[in-house]
Specification:
single chain; mainly alpha; 4 helices; globular; disordered N terminus
Length: about 100
């Protein structure tokens, strides 16, 4: 995974506009299917709980965040929109995340 997190999202005021397209591209590349922002990735049978762990790793490495504790709930990974909100929340709450 070679997407530089500081290049794509660290200096932009509207991170959701950059995270959502990148995340949608990642999901499409991995599943061969495009996903609307509010589609439940797990209820539709598109993704497994094992793939959820791949999503966690992707989000952490791509956006310089750490997903732990209660943030590891499957609900945070059900839709592209929820993952974008999680990334945005974690990036703004982690000191030093923007320059990592």
């Amino acid at each position: 995974m070679t997407v530089p997190s500081d290049q794509d999202v660290s200096d932009t005021g509207n991170r959701a506009d950059t995270v959502a397209p990148e995340l949608a591209h990642f999901l499409t590349a991995r599943t061969g299917r495009s996903w609307p922002p509010d589609a439940d990735l797990f209820a539709t049978g598109g993704l497994s709980s094992l793939f959820a762990m791949e999503l966690v790793v992707h989000l952490e490495q791509t956006y310089g965040i750490t997903v732990r504790g209660t943030d590891l709930r499957l609900d945070n990974f059900r839709t592209v929109r929820r993952m974008v909100a999680l990334v945005d929340r974690l990036r703004t709450s982690e000191p030093g995340a923007h320059g990592a």
